[in-house]
Design a protein that fits this description.
With about 190 residues, the chain is of the alpha/beta class. Helices cover about 40% and strands about 20% of the residues. The longest helix is centred in the first third of the chain and has 23 residues. The chain is globular and about 55 Å long.
C-alpha cells in the first residue's frame, strides 16, 4: 500500500522548502561563509541538524548588519550566540544570554569563542518556569531586567515540562522587560 496523502503532502512541503533554501544559498553564497563555519563547529558536537538553521542564522546576521543593535538579550543560547558574538566583536555592544542548561550555555560560549572574563558578554543560567500570563500558558526564566535592550531574541527556554512539549505556551520574559520607546516596533 502507498503512502497516506498526508505523508505525501508533508514530503512535498519539505522538498519545496529545501529547494527555496538551496536557491537562497546560491544567490547569497558570500553571506553563508561565516554561517557555515558556525554551524560546522556546532554540528561537530552532534547538534543542529535542522535544515532551516543556516537560513535562520543568515537572516539573523543580515538583521544585525542592517540595524546594528548595541544591547542584546538572547533567551536560549546556541548557534545564534556565535552570530551575536561575531557582531559584537565587529561593531561593539553587549550580549546578555540566558539558558536553562548549564552545559548548553557552556557549549555555546565555547563554540562562539566567548571567554568568561570578557565584559561584553554576560552569560547566565536560569531554570525555566511554567506558569500563566493573562490566562495563557507561558514559559520563561523569570527575568526581572531593569534595563532596555535594542534587541531581544527569543529562542528559549525549552517548552518541555514533565515530559510534555508545551507548544501552546508563550514566553513571558518579554512582558517583564522595559521597552524603549525609541526602538519599539510592531511586527
Amino acid at each position: 500500500m502507498g503512502w497516506p496523502l498526508t505523508k505525501i503532502r508533508r514530503w512535498m512541503y519539505e522538498h519545496k522548502i529545501q529547494q527555496l533554501h538551496r536557491h537562497h544559498r546560491e544567490e547569497n553564497a558570500a553571506g553563508y561563509i561565516n554561517i557555515d563555519a558556525i554551524l560546522a563547529r556546532f554540528r561537530s558536537g552532534g547538534g543542529l541538524k535542522h535544515d532551516f538553521q543556516p537560513y535562520k542564522l543568515f537572516h539573523l546576521s543580515q538583521f544585525l548588519e542592517r540595524d546594528r543593535p548595541l544591547s542584546m538579550l538572547e533567551l536560549g543560547s546556541g548557534s545564534s550566540t556565535a552570530v551575536f558574538a561575531a557582531h559584537i566583536r565587529e561593531y561593539g555592544g553587549r550580549l546578555y544570554s540566558v539558558d536553562e542548561s548549564d552545559s548548553w550555555l557552556a557549549n555555546a560560549m565555547n563554540l562562539a569563542g566567548i571567554e568568561a572574563d570578557d565584559k561584553r558578554f554576560e552569560m547566565r543560567h536560569y531554570l525555566a518556569k511554567l506558569g500563566t500570563f493573562k490566562n495563557l500558558p507561558c514559559v520563561g526564566y523569570g527575568l526581572k531586567a531593569q534595563e532596555e535592550f535594542d534587541l531581544v531574541f527569543v529562542d528559549g527556554p525549552s517548552l518541555q515540562f514533565d515530559g510534555v512539549k508545551r507548544k501552546d505556551a508563550i514566553n513571558d520574559d518579554v512582558s517583564a522587560l522595559p521597552m524603549p520607546a525609541r526602538h519599539a516596533r510592531s511586527w
